[in-house]
User: Fold this.
Amino acid sequence: MNNAMIRGMGWVSESSRGYPGQVLCSKESHGLPRISGKEILDRPHKAFGRMDPFSKIGFAAITFALADAGIARSKSKKNIAVIASSVTGCLETDITYQATLSREKGILPSPTLFAYTLPSCFLGEASIYHGLTGESFMVEEEIPDGLQGLSLGLDLLGDGGCDALVCGLCNSNINGVGPINTTCPEPGALFFVFEKQGSRPGHGIITENRVQNIFSLGNKKINSLTDLGKNILVKKTN
Amino acid sequence: MTQVYIAEAATITSLGDDLDTLYQGLVQGKSGLTHMSDPGLPGHLESAPPRFDTSVYTSPWAGLIPNLIPKELSLNNPAPLIFSLADRLLSKLGPIDPSTCLITASTKAGIDLLPTITRNTALLPKGLLVSSLPGYISQKLGLARPGFNISAACSSSTIALAKGAAMIKSGRETAVLVCAMDVVSEFIFSGFSTLGAMSPDPAAPFDKNRKGLTLGEGAAAMLLMNKKELNTAKKTGKRTHLTQISGWGVASDASHLTAPARDGLGLKLAIQEACQKADISFSDIQAINTHGTGTRHNDEMELTVLRDLFNPTIMANSIKGAIGHTLGAAGAIEAALCIKLLETRILPGTPGFIEPAPGAQNIISSRPRPFGKGPVLTMNSGFGGTNAALILSGVAP
Assistant:
C-alpha cells in the first residue's frame, strides 16, 4: 500500500487555470490560453518567454501546484522529484520545428525551438526556476490516465528518494493536426504536489493498493489524475 | 533485500548486431561512424542507404546501423524506422513471459515520419508519437500490458533501467524488460547542427581538441529479474545470470536547460545515491563508463565530477567516438557493455582521444586497460539538467 498527502494542485485547461481558491477563467473562446510570465512568476524570467506552448502550460501548472502547496521558490535547492505523463508529447512543437526545417531547407532552423522538441525540457525549466534537484522524467504512454507515472512517483516518495513529488499530466492540442489511432487526451496540464503524511494540511490522502492496482482518495476510487483533480475540487466546493 | 539481476542483454549498434561484436570492436579500436555523403571517404557504409543530404549541416558523420530500412505497416502506410530497429532488437531476445513489465526509452522514436504529415495532415500515422513505441513492442512480444516509455533526453534509458530496478526491488514487479532505441533522423541531426553541438570530424571525447558530438543510432534490451524469477528461468534453461544492477541514482542540476552544471551537482547527487543503494563507497568502483559526448561542457563537467569524487587512479572511458551518441539508447547500450566489462575486466579505450583535455590524463586512455575486481559505474546526463547513474556488479561464475 502506497499513500501520500496531496499538498497542492495546479492546472491549465482550455476553460481555466490556477489552483484551488485562485482560479482564472479563460478569455479565449477556444484552445489553450496564452499565459504570460507576469501571471505566474514572482519576478521576470526570460526563459519563460522562450518556451514553446507545451512547455509553458506544463511549467505554469507545476508553478501553480507548488504555490498551492506553499512551497516557495528559494535559493536553496530542494530534493523534489517531477514526473509528467503524456500521450501526445510536444507534437505541436515538433510540427512547428519541422515546418521551419522544411521551409529553410535545413539551413536555419531555430536552436531554441529544437531544444523544446524534447518533451521533458519543461521539467528541466521547472527544476531550474524552482530549484528542484530530484528525479525528473516523462512517462509517455497511450493510456491517458497518468496513473503509471503516479505509481512510479509514489514508490519514489515512499522509498525516501525525494522529499516531495510533483506529478501530473501534460498534453498538446493535437486536434488541429488530425485524428490519430490512439485515445486523444484533453489538451492541457494538471499537476499535484505529494508529500509523505505529516501535520501540514492538504487536499486529502491518495492511496494506492498495489495488489489490486487501485487508487483512491478517501473512500472514492480514482480512475485518472483528471478524476483526482475533479474530486478535489468537488470536495472543496462542498 | 531483493537483488536485481540482468538475465539477458542485447544490443544493436553501428558496430554490429550483438553485444560481443560491439565489445570486441571497441577493444580492437574499430569505428562504426559513417561519412554520410562521401562514399570515397573511409568509414562510408555502402550498405547504409542515404538518409538525407548533410551538406547544409555542420557534420557529415553519424553512427548508422547497416541495412536498417523502414518497412510498411500496410500498403502506402509507412512505419517509422524505429519499428524496424525494434523488430531487429526483439529478434535477438529469448521468449519473454507475458506478465513481464515493459519500459521503453526513446527521445523521439518515430519522428522520421513527421515530414509525411506536414505535407498531408489527414491522418497522423501510427508510430509518430513516442507513446506508441511501447504498445508496438508489447504487441510484438504478446505482453499482457502495453508498457510505457521514459523520456528524459540522453538519460532516458539509464532512468528506465533505474525505474525497472526500483520496481523489482520494491516487489512491484518480478521481471521488467527495458527496450531502448533511437535512430538518426534529419529532424534530430538538424537540431544538433543548429545548436552548434556537432563535431565536423568524428567525436573525440575528452580530447583537448574535441569539437563536439557525433550522432549515432542504436538499441539495447535488458531483461531484469528478481532472484526467484531468475532461478525459474535458469531451471528451464532460458536465461543465465549475467550481472546485477546494485545501485542507481537520478538527479537534476537545476542549473541550465542545454548545458550541464559546471560543478556537476546533479551527476554527483546521482552517483552518491547509486553508491548508497549499492552500499559501497566511491573508492570501491573500479571502472567508469562516462557519458563522454565530446562536447566541451559535458566532458569538462564529467572530469570535474571524476576528480572530485574518485581517486586519481580511477579509469574511465567513452564509447561515443566509435558508435556516436545514440541519445535515448545510449544509457542502456553502455549499461549492457558494462556486463562485458565485468566479464573481461578490460575497459575499452576512448576512440578519438589523442591529446588529453585538462584533467583527463591517466583517467582516460585511447587503449584498452585491465581493471581490478569490483563494481563498475555508468553514467549519463542530458538536456534539462537530467543525470543518472547505475552501478553494476557481481558476475556469476
